[in-house]
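User: Band 7 domain-containing protein. Structure?
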Amino acid sequence: MNKVNPSQQEIAMTSNQEQLTAAAYQQNRMASTEEGIGVCGWVLVVLSYILCALTFPFSLCFIIKVVQEYERAVIMRLGRILPGGAKGPGLFFVLPCVDSIIKIDLRTVTFNVPPQEILTRDSVTVSVDAVVYFRVFNPVMSVTNVANAHNSAQLLAATTLRNSLGTKTLHEILTERETIAHLMQTHLDEGT
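Assistant: Predicted structure:
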């Protein structure tokens, strides 16, 4: 018989629950995209096509969009993300009055974490600041799951800095900078 520590069992159960939750989310998302936009939505889309055709030369200014090499465009038609995910780079068409476009920058962004006053484990007050580099890997998830990805990443970095350094002594902070940096990176990767 194979014995497993209770903590390993809890981790395995948590991992299985996360997988089931992710699978249920994907199934729900697929069902919602299969439902479509409904009859009223199709009527609005057809009217938008007719409007574009009637005002053809003038409407080109509104239906042609360009996305740079380092950007992706998440297009929502009547509040739902279009199938195929993010568009770009290059030239693409949108329907006026029906589609809304959100451009996401995929370049690496840097920001300073403001100096944090931290009380170490040996009761020494330390002022620590940091620099965080991050970039968006999945533009659709960035738009649908987080209201403001840049601000959220900055707040998470400040909180992680305070939490990870609050458990260390001053000597550990000064001598183990690299291990603390790797620990923070893993916490930030999990959080984002």
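Residues 6-35 form the longest helix (30 residues). The helical segments are 6-35, 38-54, 56-63, 139-145, 149-166, 170-175, 177-191.
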